[in-house]
Specification:
The protein has 410 residues and is α/β, with parallel strands linked by helices. The chain has 2 domains: 5-49; 53-408, Alkaline Phosphatase, subunit A, CATH 3.40.720. It is built from 15 helices and 17 strands. The strands form 5 sheets. The chain has an 8-stranded mixed β-sheet, sandwiched between helices. Strands 15-16-17 form a 3-stranded antiparallel β-sheet, with no helix packed on it. A two-stranded antiparallel sheet has the order 2-3. α1 (5-12) crosses α2 and α9 runs parallel beside α11 (256-280). The protein is globular and about 60 Å long.
């Protein structure tokens, strides 16, 4: 009980339970787990006392702004390319006149891309990014929803898409225990999860299987699918401290900013090969592809100083968001957006009703966003200002997770 508060705060955001045991010992972990569990039970029980009417009304107001679904829209494969630790500044960023990710920048220019997609993750980082694009709900600040919440009730993309004939698969070149990902993906409704032990791949770089091999496997799966596929590809090679490519090439690592540029260029090459493979297999035209960074690099301020040039952004903490294959004119969107917008735009594109609990912006409705770190913001002319929400966002998230039926009542 005499452990510093900073230790307890760190452990609340633990990735797997054994890390708490290592830090505290078995006795300390037991005390920690009792306190942590009691807090969560108390938090959940307090939800029963919440007046859900304002939350229901808030969600209904969002829903009235969405267009009626066009049931005649074609059902294409839906691909999430989730890019580990990729900052929004990679599109437009220049060092010695060279683009950071030339292929991704070309895709952005030829399709729809967002310059101000805010990093709306919290302590869950990568899994928070997943939660945003799968449920269109904002993650709680701490502890991470994947670690502490049961996710078998909340409306999610795998569940919504399964109802209209899609098969949902996630693929990640690391183990499924980390961040409780296998358990969370099962609860969220994926039909299949492919992690390190499930993949027959060879090349390993950094934490797990290389992005090149994972993306090649993803392309094979898309081409072989006989039904509409929702495929969530979670990349890994571009992970802090970003020197894995240098080590793989036998280089002596340089300063972290230079290593980051080398690492994201490798990822860019992998994405280019993935698109080339889809084109060769004749399936690219049948795909809707959302490419996004899961969270920032944690060195975005250092990168801004290191780079020679970058696109202007409303705040520095952004992630890239590029939508490929959609029935939209190529455009650069400078209005506020967030990863919770991705599932709403996709469902609108294929003509499927958006669940009431989804809170993101749809097509041409951008200009506001909410996150646990930065709070709620809206556009005012060419700048942003705080947006006072009608409800408490964290309570809304917990209601959507634990009691979605109350939000959906007439």
């Amino acid at each position: 009980m005499t452990w510093p508060q900073s230790e307890w705060a760190l452990l609340r955001a633990r990735l797997v339970n054994y890390q708490a045991v290592v830090r505290l010992g078995y006795g300390g972990y037991f005390i920690f787990d009792v306190v942590d569990t009691a807090n969560r039970i108390g938090r959940r029980s307090n939800l029963d006392k919440v007046d859900v009417a304002p939350y229901r009304n808030y969600l209904r107001e969002l829903a009235t702004k969405r267009p009626e679904p066009d049931k005649n829209r074609p059902r294409k494969h839906i691909i999430y390319l989730q890019l580990e630790s990729v900052d929004g500044l990679v599109i437009g960023g220049r060092k010695n006149g060279e683009p950071m990710m030339p292929f991704l920048e070309g895709l952005a220019t030829a399709n729809v891309f967002f310059t101000n997609a805010i990093d709306n993750t919290a302590s869950g980082r990568t899994t928070d990014g997943e939660f945003l694009v799968l449920t269109s709900q904002v993650p709680v600040s701490r502890p991470p929803v994947y670690v502490t919440q049961k996710l078998d009730k909340i409306p999610s993309m795998p569940r919504v898409l399964e109802e209209v004939g899609y098969r949902s698969v996630s693929i990640h070149g690391f183990n499924g225990v980390f961040w409780h990902r296998r358990e969370a993906h099962t609860a969220l409704g994926y039909n299949e999860m492919l992690f390190e032990d499930d993949l027959d791949l060879e090349e390993r770089i950094g934490w797990g299987f290389s992005d090149r091999e994972v993306l090649a496997e993803a392309a094979r799966m898309i081409a072989a699918s006989e039904q509409p596929l929702f495929l969530h590809v979670i990349t890994l090679t571009n992970h802090h401290p970003y020197d894995y490519i240098s080590k793989e090439e036998g280089r002596k690592p340089e300063r972290i900013e230079a290593e980051y540029l080398r690492s994201v260029r490798y990822l860019d090459d992998c994405i280019a090969e993935f698109f080339s493979s889809l084109e060769e297999k004749g399936v690219l035209k049948d795909c809707l592809i959302a490419i996004y960074g899961d969270h920032d690099s944690a060195i975005n301020e250092e990168l801004e100083i290191y780079l020679d040039d970058e696109l202007p952004r409303l705040i520095s903490d952004t992630v890239p968001l590029v939508m490929v294959g959609f029935d939209q004119v190529a455009q650069r969107i400078d209005e506020l957006a967030g990863l919770q917008d991705v599932p709403v735009m996709i469902l609108e594109e294929i003509g499927i009703p958006v669940p009431l609990t989804f809170t993101g912006n749809g097509w041409h409705q951008w200009g506001r966003t909410v996150g646990p770190q930065h709070g709620s913001w809206k556009m005012e002319g060419d700048s942003i200002e705080p947006w006072i929400m009608a409800v408490d966002q964290e309570t809304l998230t917990l209601l959507a997770i634990n009691h979605p039926e109350k939000l959906l009542e007439p």
